[in-house]
Write a structure and sequence with these properties.
- It contains 8 helices and 21 strands.
- The chain folds into 2 domains: about 140 residues, Adenine-n6-DNA-methyltransferase TaqI, Chain A, domain 2 (Alpha-Beta Complex), CATH 3.90.220.20; about 180 residues, DNA methylase specificity domains (Adenine-n6-DNA-methyltransferase TaqI, Chain A, domain 2, Alpha-Beta Complex), CATH 3.90.220.
- It is α+β, with helices and mostly antiparallel strands.
- Helix content is about 25%, strand content about 20%.
- Helix 1 crosses helix 4.
- The chain has a 5-stranded mixed beta sheet, with no helix packed on it. A 4-stranded antiparallel beta sheet has the order 13-19-16-17, with helices on one face. A 3-stranded antiparallel beta sheet has the order 7-6-9, with helices on one face.
Length: about 375
């Protein structure tokens, strides 16, 4: 779960974010400085938490100049809910993508503002400023973001809040690492019990996955729906970890029609398969207590017949040999992509046991 700033706004004064925006800042066209090396705070670099170090000749468009301590907030969908504090100056000019909204003020501690810009209540207000034609053309409008009021406690209190949330964030990172180790252990147990699903050394009956599906559909694309805290969660690629864990707290919410909700809402036991991009092949299982959600356009939803227990099917799809097939076949397209027909052709050996609903490695007759 995302760390959340728990602040009662009545405790301190508030101010509009516009007062923290530096206004029209300096633009830099790196093409005019082909031999100069820059620190580039790009949207793709966010995941590594390190700016790209590139010569001007390799930077494709005009950027905005930023300073140490600036706080950057992504305004482009689907890369929302990303806030980044500009790091130390290493003797190179620091520039950032125009897809960041920049905040700069001596009145705010950067770490506090970073946490506040991704907490749930602010995020709901932020998403109400988004407009566009859909897909990657959806962007938050800075002029509207500037009107959002935020609480501004004294600087010492800002630092204290940031320190508490930094510790919570570190614990969350450790939890993800532990889940990765657990996932590796589960895979080892699975292979020991059933063998590799591609080579199938135990000679289980080996139908193709498609013949075991009761239902399969691509996720929808939404264009004109409004963002609202009362809407249904939309699962994005970034909400699914390598371990197959969904982060429901980070998902945007859309108000969709009753018809779309009935058609696309995920059910307990559904598997969602990431079909495109660098994360192709990641799989998540929907559990009984998961909140209502819809898998977005970059997913394929699968619902299996009663002869296959979903948790077993997920273990097959995340086996290294099956992931290798997905990776190889998806690279054959111009853009990394794995199709529904390709998914249906994957192996799904069926052992003569049914998986218990209580454990990924407990099987009963």
């Amino acid at each position: 779960m995302k760390s959340e700033v728990r602040i009662t706004t009545g405790q301190w004064k508030t101010l509009p974010l516009g007062e923290l925006m530096p206004g029209r800042g300096e633009s830099v066209d790196p093409a005019n400085h082909p031999d100069e090396t820059f620190d580039v705070y790009s949207i793709p670099a966010f995941d590594s938490q390190q700016p790209e170090v590139l010569p001007g000749a390799q930077i494709g468009s005009t950027k905005q100049a930023v300073e140490s301590g600036d706080v950057l907030l992504s305004k482009i969908v689907p890369h929302i809910r990303r806030a980044w504090v500009v790091g130390k100056n290493h003797g190179r000019r620091m520039i950032a993508s125009s897809e960041w909204i920049v905040f700069r003020s001596s009145r705010v501690f950067p770490g506090y503002l970073r946490h506040l810009l991704v907490e749930n209540r602010f995020h709901a207000k932020f998403m109400s400023t988004v407009s566009g034609l859909g897909g990657s053309l959806l962007r938050a409008r800075p002029a509207y973001v500037a009107k959002i009021e935020i609480p501004l406690p004294p600087l010492p209190e800002q630092r204290r809040i940031a320190e508490v949330l930094d510790r919570a964030e570190a614990l969350r990172a450790k939890r993800h690492a532990a889940l990765a180790q657990l996932d590796s252990l589960t895979q080892s147990l699975f292979l020991d019990l059933f063998g590799d699903p591609v080579s199938n050394p135990k000679k289980w009956p080996d139908p193709k996955l498609g013949g075991l599906l009761g239902f399969q559909q691509y996720g929808p694309r939404f264009y004109n729906e409004s963002y609202s805290a009362d809407g249904i969660r939309i699962v994005r690629i970034t909400d699914l970890s390598e371990e197959g864990v969904l982060d429901f707290s980070s998902m945007p919410r859309l108000v969709v029609s009753d018809e779309d909700r009935e058609k696309y809402a995920l059910r307990s036991g559904d598997l969602i398969f990431a079909r495109t991009g660098a994360t192709v092949g990641k799989v998540a299982l929907i559990h009984p207590n998961d909140p209502p959600c819809i898998a977005g356009a970059y997913f394929i939803t699968m619902r299996f017949k009663d002869s296959v227990v979903p948790i077993y099917a997920r273990a097959v799809l995340t086996a290294p040999s099956v992931r290798a097939i997905v990776a190889k076949r998806s690279r054959q397209a111009a853009q990394q992509n794995f199709s529904g027909p390709g998914l249906r052709q994957l192996p799904m050996p069926i052992p003569p046991y049914r998986c218990s609903a209580n454990s990924p490695v407990e099987f009963v007759r």
